[in-house]
Every structure is written in C-alpha cells, then in structure tokens.
Write a structure and sequence with these properties.
The protein is of the alpha/beta class. It has helices spanning 16-27, 39-51, 67-80, 111-133, 163-184, 204-208, 217-229, 256-270, 277-283; strands at 7-10, 31-36, 58-61, 86-89, 137-142, 190-196, 240-242, 245-247. Strand 1, helix 1 and strand 2 form a beta-alpha-beta unit. The chain is globular, with a radius of gyration of 17 Å.
Amino acid sequence: MDMRGKTVLITGSTDGVGRYVANRLAAEGAHVLIHGRDAVRAKALIDEIVRAGHTAPTFYQADLSSMAGTRELAAAVTRDHQRLDVFVSNAGIGSQSDGPQRQESRDGHELRFAVNYLSGFLLVHLLLPLLKAAAPSRIVNVASLGQNPIDFDDVMITKGYSGSRAYAQSKLSQIMFTIDLAAELRDAGITANSLHPATYMNTTMVRAGGITPMSTVEQGGAAILHLVQGDDVAGKSGLFFNGMSEARANPQAYDADARKRLRALSRELTGLSPDPPHLWLAKR
C-alpha cells in the first residue's frame, strides 16, 4: 500500500513499538494520528518527525482505561477526519504495570481487560464509519503469543488473579474479536488481522515487568508494518500472525460459542447495542 496521503491512527504511539511505527509511516508520507497519555512524549515525537522533514502528526491525548476517555478519542478523530485508512490498536499495559496486584478501571472492569481489549473493541466500532469511507482499509490489533482462555464465570478474574493471566486473557480476547470482526466486515472492504509482533521487545512495558528484552522494536515494528501496508496481506482477514508468519492462536479463539459470549459481554460493558441475531447466524 502506498502510504502517501493515507490517514492512520495508532493508539499507544508515543513510546515503544507504536512510536517506531508512527515514525516510519510519517516518513512514508502518511498523515499519522498519534495517541497517548503523555503530552511531553507526544511533543518529542512530533518534533522528531518534523525535523526529519515530514508532516507533523496530530496528537490525541486520551486515557483508554475508561469508556468515557475512549469515546472522547473516537469523537475527536471523527470530528477532525472524514476517513481513516488504517487503525492500529496498539495501546496496552503489561502484566506488571503499576504493580502485580489486581487493579480495576474507572468503570470497575479488570484493568488489563479494559485497556488492552475493551478500549480497542469500542474504538473500532465507533470508528467504523471512517474506515468504511476509506475502503479498502485495514484494522491491525496488536496482540501476543501469551494467551489465556477466558473463564466466563469469572471474566474479571476476582479469584486466582495474576497479572500474567490477566494480560494473556486480554490478548486472546483481542484475537477472538479480530476473527469476528473480519467476518462482519467481509463485504465492507475492510480487513482485520491480529499479531504477536515480537517476543519481549525492548520497550518500557517489558522493562517495567523486570524482563530482559529479547528483541527490538524495529523487529516488532516491521511485523506491524507488514499488516498495515503489505501487498501480500491486502486480501487476508481474520488471521493471527506471529511476526511475519500466519500462526494459530489458542484453541478458544476458534470456538464460535466462546466468541459469541465474549462479543455479547463486550457490547454490554462498552454500552453498544446488542448484535442483531442474523449476524450471529451468519457467522456460525
């Protein structure tokens, strides 16, 4: 895909692999919409891109740990733009962010499930009109090889909590959502894929978890950029990638009933109206 003139939104793009991807796409002529919580980091990225002679990205400051903050981000992007060629859902928190203890979002949801999954779920649905206006367009969900099946009797992990379990559950949720989204958008000219960019990249999230990095943001960024602009994936949708290669996710991702339960719960938690029954009949 020729990125010149394309509008791309990347959440969590003022640091780590999101920052690298934003820099690369700006260098290729895209109008990049960057998102984060830290305005100082955002300014540093904008200044760096402008110094390199590229168009300044637009910064959207938002806290995706709340549904209100997520809706505000979608409203701001919709107000400012008529189309969105690519949406990269990259924002997230690690298994040890702000400590190993169980935490809740402003809305009372387990924090990693809220930030890593629910915010992206809501954003995609609110931004669909812009993505449809730009078709053919792409959605890329940055997930992980770390995946844990969802216990639907205790989705918020009130018992037996661990940060790694919560993180892995949120990442599998992203993958399950991507599979359903691809089916829903099959005739809309929008592809949706998820990926594990690279293992333990040298990012703030990894280092904060006390983990020694095993790969670089450049390696992970290349995998994300492949799904953003690669010609070989232009017609592919609903897939999970490990780096550059197609891979299989946790078996629960391919369980239609589990995905149906997750989707119904997600729509309820984010305040979206339930799916019409015919959509689920078509997907089974």
